[in-house]
Amino acid sequence: MDLGPRDDRGPLSFREVGLLAVSTERAYVPAMPKQREPVSFLVFSASLRAGSFNTMLAKLAGGAIEKHGGTVDLAAMSDFDSPSYSQDAQAQGVPSGATELRRRLDGNDAFVIAAPEYNGSMPGLLKNAIDWVSRLRPQPFNGKHAFLLSASPSMVGGNRGLWALRVPLEHLGSRVYPDMFSLAQAHQAFDTQGKLVNAQLADRLDQTIAGFMDLAEAAKHYPCAKTAWIEFLGEQPNSPIDRVDRPAQPQ
Ligand code: FNR
To answer: What is the per-residue pLDDT across 40-88, written as a single tens digit (0 to 9) for each?
Structure first.
């Protein structure tokens, strides 16, 4: 393999190429707050329960987003709760909960959901809200970056519910961040200030959110990165395979 001229010593050997790869390997860099282009996040918990662990986790996520230079619109699921969807009900009009969720999605660049796991899936009220909003045009989930979290007293932290939640969101064109955060044994995980007791877990949450924010910021402010993301998913934005509407424009 010839990597081209290199002063008077000729091309690099295989061993030298290997050493070069090792020496340029990225060092571990802790997520530090940094200057960002403006990017806003709708953050909500999909639990209506007073004292909800997912609401506590959503608040923590919101705090981390602000620390890393984002704007947070913290919402409550009670704002979005809607009667059971049916096409007959839709013919009577769209309920205020669904209208509000659409308004808040449209008003932010990306969204974050902390969702409980019910019977290995997402809570019915969350799926119901998604179904209502999916009927509105432009379809508000399309093209929006999303980050998913869960909290549960169980040992796996409600992670299966997030895999279920991915399905309708990705179906609707949301770019769901590959990494997710599930908090196990949530009933013992928070201190009296609402912070995570385990420092390693707290750091992991912080790092994951910073990575998600980088992507949401790039999608908004650096369109070449957005194109690369779309192509990676095999969804080149050309008319024959455009299956959904254009992303909603902020009002
Ligand atoms: C649960 N819970 C639960 N937990 C889990 O880890 N996996 C599961 O499949 C279920 N299933 C389930 C079904 C129903 C109907 C209820 C009411 C609860 C426990 C659940 O994670 C726990 O109650 C959480 O505390 C709920 O989240 P919030 O309200 O604390 O945010």
So the answer is: 999 999 999 999 999 999 999 999 999 999 999 999 999 999 999 999 9
How many residues are listed for the chain in this entry? 251
Nearest one of 91, 74, 90 to 82, comparing CA atoms:
90
3-state secondary structure of 171: helix
Centroid of ligand 1 to alpha carbon of 71 (angstroms): 30
Beta-carbon neighbour count of residue 25 at 10 Å?
A: 7
Q: Amino acid identity of 238?
A: N
List of residues 6+ apart from 50 with CB closer than 8 A: none
Q: Whose CA is nearest to atom 28 of ligand 1?
A: 52
pLDDT tens for each residue of 196-226? 999 999 999 999 999 999 999 998 988 655 5
Q: If you measure from the C-alpha of residue 151 to the centroid of ligand 1, how many angstroms do you get, rounded to a whole number? A: 9
Nearest-CA residue for atom 9 of ligand 1: 119
